[in-house]
């Protein structure tokens, strides 16, 4: 595609140059000269447009196994489960409970995922989840809030075959929505993970309700920037071989078999360990744990 475009640009440039020369010369009174001048003017006009198209043209997604960025949807579409939104034009105040007072402001530019809604005193409240420096947090937003106008609706993520790249690039709420308690098999490299330091919440049971200590990734390097799936191990399982984030890449890859929506999530409880962490009731604690990937078994890839 590059060669034809370059050829066209070169041709148009020559036409523009000829047009400029013709403009400086005495204008002949023939129809042919008029046509040449017109063609040159057209060339001069469309060269910048073509150059701009090339500069701003986005290449196709090189890896179809990785979830693409969400796209905008009709602004009149309802905020149903899975709908994502980007905050624009100011911060987004969220309450810690449905019907409560604002607890924190989510900064402009961040995204939120709509999970559920609840009626409180005749008003609808939306439960959303978002990512910030403390991790993935929950908050409640009233439907009648002026802040709703600061949200740009984005389409829900697609639910495709659960490859490592696809699962790892989805939001936690989308992983639960798409795969439920389905048994999944994903392959990659195991790295140390962990949450914020100090911890945002202290959870029980510790093995499930705290941030996963390890994660599976497709990329290895000082900054793991690709799809990542944090996971949790029961005490009966040994820790898979770890890969240092700064490499070198080992010959062995690890295959994990596990699931989201673990039934033991019903016992999860979280206590805020920081003053700026919104409290989680038993319902939100269970939901957070249901979003976690629990490993049933693992083995090394052998060729």
Give a description of the structure.
Helix 1 (2-24) crosses helix 2 (31-56). The strands form four sheets. This protein has a five-stranded antiparallel beta sheet, with no helix packed on it. The chain has helices spanning 2-24, 31-56, 164-168, 172-179, 206-209, 282-290, and strands at 84-87, 92-95, 102-106, 111-120, 123-132, 135-142, 151-154, 184-192, 201-204, 214-217, 228-232, 254-259, 269-272, 293-300. The chain is built from six helices and 14 strands. The two termini are 38 Å apart. The longest helix is centred in the N-terminal third of the chain and has 26 residues, at 31-56. With 303 residues, it is of the alpha+beta class. A hairpin with a 2-residue loop joins strand 4 (111-120) and strand 5 (123-132).
Summarize this structure as a short list of keywords or feature phrases.
single chain, 303 residues, alpha+beta, 5-stranded antiparallel β-sheet, 5-stranded mixed barrel, 25% helix, disordered N terminus
Please write out the topology.
Layout: H1 2-24, H2 31-56, E1 84-87, E2 92-95, E3 102-106, E4 111-120, E5 123-132, E6 135-142, E7 151-154, H3 164-168, H4 172-179, E8 184-192, E9 201-204, H5 206-209, E10 214-217, E11 228-232, E12 254-259, E13 269-272, H6 282-290, E14 293-300
Parallel strand pairs: 11-14
Antiparallel strand pairs: 1-4, 1-7, 2-3, 4-5, 5-6, 8-10, 8-12, 9-13, 10-11, 12-14
Helix pairs in contact: 1-2
How many individual β-strands?
14
- Overall SS class: alpha+beta
Helical residue percent? 10-25%
Number of helices: 6
Strand-residue proportion: 25-35%
Which sequence of SSEs, written as H and E, runs from N to C? Answer: HHEEEEEEEHHEEHEEEEHE
Largest sheet: 5 strands, antiparallel
Low-confidence stretches: 1-63
What is the spatial order of strands in the main beta sheet?
A: 6-5-4-1-7
Q: First CA to last CA: what distance?
A: 38 Å
